[in-house]
Amino acid sequence: MNPALEAVPSWFWTAAAAVLGAVVGSFLNVCIHRMPRNESLVRPRSHCPGCGTTISWFDNLPVLSWIFLGGKCRGCGMRISPSYAMVETLTALLFVAIWRTFAPAEAFAYAIFACLLIVATFIDFEHFIIPDRITLGSVFAGVVCSGFIPSLQNAERHSAGAFWSLAGAAAGYATLWTVVEIGKKIFGMKRVEFPHPTEVFLTPEGLRFGDESERWEEIFSRESDALRFGAIGIRLGDRSWDQAHVRVNWKEVRVGDEVFPLETLGELMAVTKRLEIPREAMGRGDVKFLAGIGAFLGPQAIFFVIFASSVLGSAFGLLLMLLAKRGWGFKIPYGPYLAAAALLWIFQGANWWAVWARGLGG
Ligand SMILES: [Zn+2]
């Protein structure tokens, strides 16, 4: 290293990584908020959703402004979600950890990867989707980074780096795709068959028939999930239908060609002989997301990431169930566990896995 640079104390670089992380985290907040709504990432400037005031630069400092403003908008006092400061803090901590663990070129690539993981995690928490721009973007970024920095893939030549990155993306996609398809065959759809036509009630809260009732958030895990059935008769307020097809998703009920918002539905009674209730623990987005993770970490990380994410997911699911006293149907997104497992791999997982695999081999 250049002697002038060597004279700079290491705490300075650590502090610089933290500040850079917080600033980048502030931009990640914009991505998390705007990407699922298909809004531009650069325009307009950040504004308060309560009063519409453009947020000035000194009220937009990462973490600090949130603390000084007491988590409220200066203009109208509307509460600012602590998740903004959380994303900035998390990004800062990860940048520091990455900077202190890896050589500069690898640290640069892993910092980009960490950003993609953070955005995917927070969007998935809120919307139960991971946008293609993030998942396919990760595949692209992973291949490009591995081509320039082949050591990411334990390779020496640039072409080998890009090759193992592509192999990782393919392995990630194919493995999780298979898991999802098998899962669908086994748990994909819960069919309820009634011995004779039965009255089923749909309300803004959920679905009820006989002694059973289920809330919508337990039935639907993704925006694309839909409950479908053919009804012999339907009654809604003072309206009625004969022989109509019913389709329900998280926001609306469709009877034939007519659409009713779920929120203001009141109570819809349908007579039917069978129901098809979607069950899907993972979506297409997770499959593409694991392809993106594979592009950065290589094929050898895929089994660890699937294994560790399912252990983490089950553990947290169980914990949430105990704490919140919610049923088995309680839906949690899977993307955040994939992201957490990918981070475990970067920092220590490769070593743990090697020890474990050696143990298995005797
Ligand atoms: Zn405001």
Q: Structural class, from helix and strand content? A: alpha+beta
Mean pLDDT: 86
The rounded distance between the terminal residues' Cα atoms is 43 Å
Number of separate structural domains: 3
Shape category: globular
Low-confidence stretches: none
Features of this protein?
alpha+beta
Structure commentary:
This protein is α+β, with helices and mostly antiparallel strands and 362 residues long. The protein has 3 domains: 10-100, no CATH class; 102-186 and 283-362, no CATH class; 189-278, no CATH class. Helices cover 53% and strands 17% of the residues. The protein has 11 helices and 8 strands. A hairpin with a 2-residue loop joins strand 4 (227-236) and strand 5 (239-248). The chain is globular, with a radius of gyration of 24 Å. It starts with a helix and ends with a helix. Bound molecules: zinc ion. Zinc ion is lined by residues 48, 50-51, 53, 73, 75-76, 78.
In short:
The protein has 362 residues and is α+β, with helices and mostly antiparallel strands. The chain contains 11 helices and 8 strands.
Summarize the helices and strands and which ones pair or pack:
Layout: H1 3-6, H2 10-34, H3 64-68, H4 82-101, H5 104-127, H6 132-148, H7 158-187, E1 189-202, E2 206-209, E3 212-215, H8 216-219, E4 227-236, E5 239-248, E6 252-255, E7 258-261, E8 268-278, H9 284-297, H10 302-324, H11 335-361
Antiparallel strand pairs: 1-2, 1-8, 2-3, 4-5, 4-8, 5-6, 6-7
Bound molecules: zinc ion (ZN).
